[in-house]
Design goal:
Helix content of chain B: 25-40%
Shape of chain B: elongated
Distance between the termini of chain B: 52 Å
Number of helices of chain A: 16
Strand order of the largest sheet of chain B: 6-7-8-3-9-10
Number of helices of chain B: 17
Strand content of chain A: under 5%
Oligomer: heterodimer
Strand order of the largest sheet of chain A: 1-2
Strand content of chain B: 15-25%
Largest sheet of chain B: 6 strands, mixed
Shape of chain A: globular
Largest interface: A-B, 26 and 31 residues
Largest sheet of chain A: 2 strands, antiparallel
Structural class of chain A: mainly alpha
């Protein structure tokens, strides 16, 4: 309490020209942890191998110019995770729980895309429906499944983890069932544009889609009060109800929004390889999405959230993965390394540790302020 | 005092940061006595009970059991010393059988002799006349029976002192009767019972002695037979009956000249909170109030008006037109605002900033897709922070880091911003310093003079008299009287709270 009030009282404008107080308020800001993590990763790579950041312009097999390099890879591969993190942040904020079915739901929505585009054939010569139709159907289905989760959580008051466990378990089977257990492959080249490159544009398309999603959510949070309402419900549901908010509906709608995010992520996933394997696609991505929210310093018990921090958290996770790959960590050992880093980050961002650090710093700076006071 | 004293507390003190919860409190319990512990909210009843049961450590004073000083450092110590407690909420396991609940945690060997356990339970239940079978699942019994099982468990643990903390608040009349029978039965066996309740009638039905606490101090110990209800109420509220007559007259807020239909009118209103259906109306520019002891149903009544609890029946009219209020948003859109009693649970949204808390209600009324602009939000926040003199570091400080009084002002600002025609304030001054209290009272009168209607609830009768021109008196979840004009004085109010007779108004 005191630590919160004091600096603001001392400096009338905390974000003013005073450089020291700017850094102070940044450190106190929850976005500090993902930024710091990102900086450490960048510095580590700079020291170990500056060529990590090299970006080259080359030509792909079709003769179009493309940008390649680790940074491009990170931005590209993080796209699905970033999109999911957006939805997961809202769900976490409003319901104080997480949706663990997003990986299975990606398989499911990907399967829907394949079914609509391929019909009953497994290797169609031509697409059976326009791509936009496939995308819209995929969005609809994913939102229905999101609504299913949301209804269980909001209206039946089932714990989010348990409610979404249903789809977590069943999702991939339903995905296989939609295509009669076959794995259709789309040969139409234009379908691949969404997960790879649009001819002539050297930047991978998923990056654009992710940025578009970020812009949309930023606009939504700016021009509607979705953020205020979800946070209010997550912090104090009873109080929100007495202020006229319908807490059930707000919780419900966040799951539907996450459903939409799942659909977009699923669509990118299918487009990358023109097919998917239901049982392995987006495996464990739900855990990474939850981790992104946590790394952003957002409380997994709901309430206040910082969307930018979550998005940054998602990029940190991908940055870490790519860095580990770069240092030839074999893929089976990757999760263990990741876990070590995650432990450090999560412990550092835990409020109890931050309070301790703040207390220690206060102690250290106490003699100095005492001297200052005396001089006055 | 020839009777054998079982428990004696002397000079008990307990301090919490910033609050002296108990100061020099004494208490005496004799063998075979039912002793009521009375006091308003915050008087120190539950703190005293918790000191006695080892939940809190006392800061000073002595506890004597049968004349010998004892040290109670944990709940285990209390149990071993023969002090058992039955709490308001059942703390047993509903999915275990009655017998298991009675013996759980008390069997010494690893193996349970189920047959013996059930037989002993049956004997005990029979001797106390409790209508439950040993192998019945506890959850299938009524709340009253569950409570009795908890008591039976306590009795079987050879307790000398039995503490019943609000045992009757979730029971109906017949169940209360059964519980009283059991209590009188235990009394015959020589168990000393401490009975904590806020139902006055129940105190007089079973208790021998009454100890009253007020503001953490010992007010006095009385024989139940010699203390009239009115006096008990005045002791609890801390008003000397003789000094009452020269209290200041209520500030008159006129409503007579307004001949039209009431701003708000309800008849036969009933909600899920378990209050008797009631009629209510308020005129333009009027300040009225619900009074009564804690738990009398005054909060439940206004919650029903606002639609905070589910409304079961009755009709509601605003300005003579019939309206439906099913949920808080309906009430808000009709221009009703409600400042809830429990600020922390129902009022503030702790992690949100002062500014966001101020604009919340207005924003909800506007809808999610019509956001209040940042500039407007900042303007509203600054305006009300200045108007109500809210002490906050900045409008962006989280509300939870403000003091209680300032939090309350923020909530008040929220509802003033919503520009209501009818404002309900439930305990707006609880836990607030005297200066702020007066400010809020003045504000209420100012709002009324602007033509708004206000319903004001407070535990402090002084305050009610300062602002209200009409009072609805509640007792045991029923409206038992309505006072206005010359009847608005402390004595009359206390009489009505305590008394049986309904006060009839004649114009």
């Amino acid at each position: 309490m005191k630590t919160l009030e004091k600096p603001v009282q001392q400096h009338q404008k905390p974000t003013g020209k005073d450089g020291g107080s700017f850094i102070k308020s940044l450190v106190r800001n929850q976005i500090f942890i993902p930024i710091a993590a990102l900086l450490i990763l960048v510095i580590f790579n700079l020291v170990a191998d500056p060529s990590f950041f090299a970006i080259t312009l080359s030509q792909n097999s079709a003769g179009y110019p493309i940008l390649s390099g680790n940074l491009i890879n990170i931005l590209d591969n993080a796209s699905e995770l970033v999109i999911l993190a957006i939805g997961m942040t809202l769900v976490t904020s409003a319901s104080g729980g997480q949706d663990i079915s997003v990986g299975a739901a990606i398989a499911l929505s990907g399967s829907v895309v394949l079914r609509v585009l391929c019909g009953t054939e497994s290797r169609p010569e031509t697409l059976q429906a326009p791509i936009i139709v496939a995308f819209l159907v995929c969005c609809l289905v994913a939102m229905i499944f999101g609504a299913f989760n949301g209804a269980l959580v909001a209206y039946f008051k089932i714990q989010p983890m348990v409610a979404t466990l249903i789809l977590f378990t069943a999702g991939r089977s339903i995905a296989a069932w939609i295509n009669n257990n076959e794995l259709p492959i789309i040969s139409e080249a234009s379908f691949g544009y969404f997960g790879n490159f649009i001819p002539g544009i050297p930047v991978p398309t998923p990056i654009f889609i992710a940025v578009l999603c970020m812009i949309i959510i930023a606009l939504v949070l700016r021009f509607t009060k979705l953020g205020l309402f979800t946070q209010s419900v997550g912090i104090n549901s009873e109080s929100s109800r007495l202020n006229g908010i319908n807490p059930e509906f707000i919780k419900f709608i966040t799951y539907v929004i996450l459903g939409l995010c799942v659909a977009i992520a699923g669509f990118i996933k299918v487009s990358r390889f023109s097919t998917i394997n239901y049982s392995v696609v987006a495996k464990d991505i739900e855990m990474d999405a939850i981790l992104a929210v946590a790394l952003g310093g957002n409380a997994l018990s709901g309430g206040k959230f910082n969307m930018a921090a979550s998005v940054l958290g998602a990029y940190v996770i991908q940055f870490l993965t790519t860095t580990l790959f770069k240092f030839n960590v074999i893929s089976s050992a990757l999760p263990a390394y990741k876990a070590v880093v995650v432990i450090i980050l999560v412990v550092l961002s835990a409020p109890i540790v931050r309070d301790k650090i703040a207390a220690v710093r206060k102690k250290l700076s106490a003699p100095r302020t005492a001297v200052k006071e005396a001089n006055r | 005092m020839q009777e054998e004293v079982v428990l004696r507390l002397e000079g008990i003190c307990k301090e919490f940061p910033g609050v002296k919860a108990l100061q020099d409190v004494e208490f005496t319990l004799r063998k075979g006595e039912i002793h009521a512990l009375m006091g308003e909210n915050g008087a120190g009843k539950s703190t005293l009970i918790k000191v006695l049961t080892g939940v809190y450590q006392k800061d000073g004073g002595n506890i004597f059991l049968s004349g010998k000083p004892v040290a109670i450092r944990s709940t285990q110590d209390a149990q071993n010393a023969g002090i058992s407690t039955v709490y308001q909420e059942i703390t047993l396991c509903p999915n275990l059988s009655v017998a298991e609940n009675m013996f759980i945690g008390r069997t010494k060997s690893i193996f349970t002799n189920w047959k013996k356990m059930n037989e002993e339970a049956k004997k005990l239940l029979g001797s106390l006349d409790i209508p439950a079978k040993p192998n019945q699942q506890l959850g299938s019994c009524s709340i009253a029976v569950q409570q009795m099982v908890a008591i039976a468990r306590a009795v079987d643990m050879d307790c000398k002192v039995l503490i019943l903390d609000e045992p009757t608040s979730s029971l109906d009349e017949q169940e209360v009767e059964k519980l009283f029978k059991l209590m009188l039965d235990l009394k015959k066996r020589g168990v000393g019972i401490i009975f904590v309740t806020h139902f006055l009638d129940q105190v007089y039905a079973v208790c021998d002695k009454i100890t009253v606490l007020r503001d953490g101090r010992f007010e006095g110990e009385y024989d139940a037979a010699e203390l009239p209800k009115v006096e008990l109420v005045s002791k609890m509220l801390g008003k000397d009956l003789n000094a009452l007559s020269d209290m200041e007259k209520p500030a008159a807020v006129s409503d007579e000249e307004n001949g039209g239909a009431p701003v708000f009118e309800a008849s036969g209103l009933e909600s899920t909170a378990g209050i008797a259906p009631f009629d209510f109306n308020i005129r333009k520019g009027e300040v009225n109030g619900f009074t009564g002891l804690l738990g009398s149903g005054r909060s439940e009544s206004v919650r029903a008006i606002y639609g905070a609890d589910k409304v079961l029946g009755g009709t509601v009219k605003m300005d003579g037109r019939e309206v439906k209020i099913k949920k808080p948003l309906d009430a808000m859109k009709l221009g009703i605002s409600y400042l809830p009693e429990d600020r922390k649970r129902d009022g503030i949204v702790g992690d949100l900033s002062v500014k966001e808390n101020i604009i919340l209600a207005l924003q909800v009324m506007k809808g999610m897709f019509h956001p209040i602009s940042r500039a407007d939000a900042a303007k509203f926040a600054d305006e009300y922070i200045k108007l109500l003199e809210i002490k906050t570091a900045s409008p962006d400080t989280p509300i939870k880091s403000l003091s209680g009084g300032n939090q309350q002002k923020v909530i008040l600002a929220r509802w003033l911003l919503a520009n209501p025609v009818y404002l309900i304030l439930d305990e707006p001054t609880r836990g607030i310093d005297v200066g702020t209290k007066l400010e809020i009272q003045k504000l209420v009168l100012k709002l009324a003079s602007e033509g708004r209607s206000v319903t004001f609830i407070s535990s402090e009768i002084d305050e009610m008299l300062n602002v209200c021109s009409r009072l609805i008196v509640m007792r045991d979840r029923k409206a038992v009287g309505e006072l206005s004009g010359s009847d608005l004085n402390q004595n009359k109010i206390m009489e009505t709270i305590a008394g049986g007779e309904k006060v009839h108004e004649n114009a």
